[in-house]
Amino acid sequence: MNEADLVIVGGGPAGLTSAIYASRALIDTVVIEKMLPGGQPILTTFIENYPGFPDGISGPEFAERLESQAKKFGARIVTSQPVREVLQVDNGFEIKTEEETFFAKAVIIATGTSPRKLNVPGEDTFTGRGVSYCAVCDGAFYKDKVVAVVGGGDSAIVEAIYLTRFASKVYVIHRRDQLRAEKILQERAFSNSKITFVWNTVVQSIDGNRRVELLKLRNVKTEEISELPVDGIFIYIGSTPNSSMVRNLVELDENGFIITDNFMKTKTPGLFAAGDVRSNTFRQLATAVGDGAIAANSAEKYLGELIWKH
Ligand code: NAP
Predict the structure, then answer these.
(1) Closest by Cα among 130, 180, 138 to 163
(2) Candidate of 159, 175, 235, 255 to mutate for ligand 1, largest count of ligand atoms within 8 Å of Cβ
């Protein structure tokens, strides 16, 4: 079995920051990441609100820097292994992936969130064939094409603006007549001539033959049904927490986010949570990184106390 003092589940900004702090404090640390290290920034075009980068930094570059910094201090990073379950056992935790079981004296859950789905007919059928949850990954396929973005939060607006680099037209379909996104983003989107807003409207179905061709829309105020021909649809309607692997060991809020105290402690001693998977957090890069540092510090104290007890 793979053993470590600390296993961090999730290799996004929170997890990798925990790894930097823990391994720099000479704690034997393993990060288990379900895909590639980096987390949400890998899927983000450009980060312009992270302190210390006045000219901004590309998401993938930021992710790479976090990874190399964690490795520099000795953290081991295991990739492409989704963690299925975390169990409390004598003197620590078993962390089970499909292929391996790891043992750790302390665990930090930094698993973030997954995109929420619209749950409308056609969404699953056309995923990868015109339905996308990642503009950075798929945007370039839509050069001179018409796309729709669903949602009114920061993600929808940031990515709608990004998609105007490629697409000839970007419709933003939002269920209300006001955006949730921050004002600076709203202003940029409103002044972008390629973006057209479709207010008070939800997507009823996604249709096409081999690829997406048409959206059926419903105006929630007038109940009017309309059709919008598009080549692609990018769905940014928020996210759901990846917390199921510890649901028996932590308290979850009504939306499934993990409840911690200010020291990132969950209700199980030795089990901490950090970043977007945590309840009641601002869900920004800067806060994820802060959570990660605090969680590592709490884990370090916990591990120190274990040594005193034995
Ligand atoms: P979000 O803030 O939760 O926004 C989700 C949007 O989708 C809302 O406009 C919501 O409408 C809409 N929506 C939710 N369920 C829907 C449904 N079933 N059908 C249609 N529309 C639906 O999510 P997010 O934009 O992904 O942002 C998540 C967090 O990351 C936020 O804290 C955000 O500030 C942060 N973030 C920040 C930046 C940045 O700082 N630049 C960039 C990206 C993300 P309502 O408005 O009507 O609820």
Answers:
(1) 138
(2) 175
